[in-house]
């Protein structure tokens, strides 16, 4: 994967518009589909809602966001209502997040958030635009990236280094089971995955996950059986090959490449 942009001329007076052309052209030329591994990403016509690229091999769709600085905890996105309606759709796009450096004239970071990590809890409603605004009343959204577990941030390029295709495809496949879950069930699984990651060890005990009981109770105030729910989610994660049960009350995270 070549990380440099090839377009030496500035197509627009606006730096942001020029960067959009450079990054979109680079993705179409260099990036393979993390789902099937084929280099067949085709750009949709401009101004298509939500998605920017589609894989000609497997039909996965991707929305591209690019900027010079690294992405923080919040990412501004499109209309709140449309984003929420699209969550359960089969063609809800995966999210490609790209950082670039104009001095080096190329890409420094690229990671994908698979669409199965998009649940209602990571979509934040922004305040409507003021009555004096050109689009008065329009309500946008933010994507809360800090609520996405590390398993849902799959780097293709990190700090100027291209990661192996084998590692990318392996990490992608590791969480595909989430697509078979409903939105509510997916939300619980993702929260427990975040708890497991926060422990910071490959091997952990059930009691380590129970330590997050109070945090989960805040998220799910109507659930009065948090510990039972935790055990249930760990069972699902074990059955799906995300982690292993090593002995009574002991678990181990399975590794990707």
Topology, please?
Blueprint: H1 15-30, E1 41-43, E2 53-55, E3 61-67, E4 74-79, H2 80-86, E5 94-101, E6 106-113, E7 123-125, E8 140-144, E9 154-158, E10 161-162, H3 165-174, H4 183-199, E11 203-205, H5 206-210, H6 213-219, H7 226-239, E12 243-247, E13 250-253
Helix pairs in contact: 4-7
Features:
2 domains; 257 residues; PvuII Endonuclease, Chain A; alpha+beta; Arc Repressor Mutant, subunit A; 13 strands; 7 helices; single chain; 24% strand; 3-stranded antiparallel beta sheet; 7-stranded mixed beta sheet; 30% helix
Brief synopsis:
With 257 residues, the protein is an alpha+beta fold.
Task: Report what the structure shows.
The protein is an alpha+beta fold. The protein has 2 domains: 15-180, PvuII Endonuclease, Chain A (3-Layer(aba) Sandwich), CATH 3.40.210.30; 184-253, Orthogonal Bundle (Arc Repressor Mutant, subunit A), CATH 1.10.10. The protein contains 7 helices and 13 strands. The protein has helices at residues 15-30, 80-86, 165-174, 183-199, 206-210, 213-219, 226-239, and strands spanning 41-43, 53-55, 61-67, 74-79, 94-101, 106-113, 123-125, 140-144, 154-158, 161-162, 203-205, 243-247, 250-253. The strands form 3 sheets. Strands 1-2-3-5-6-9-10 form a 7-stranded mixed sheet. The chain has a 3-stranded antiparallel sheet with strand order 4-8-7. Strands 11-13-12 form a 3-stranded antiparallel sheet. Helix 4 packs across helix 7. The longest helix is centred in the last third of the chain and has 17 residues, at 183-199.
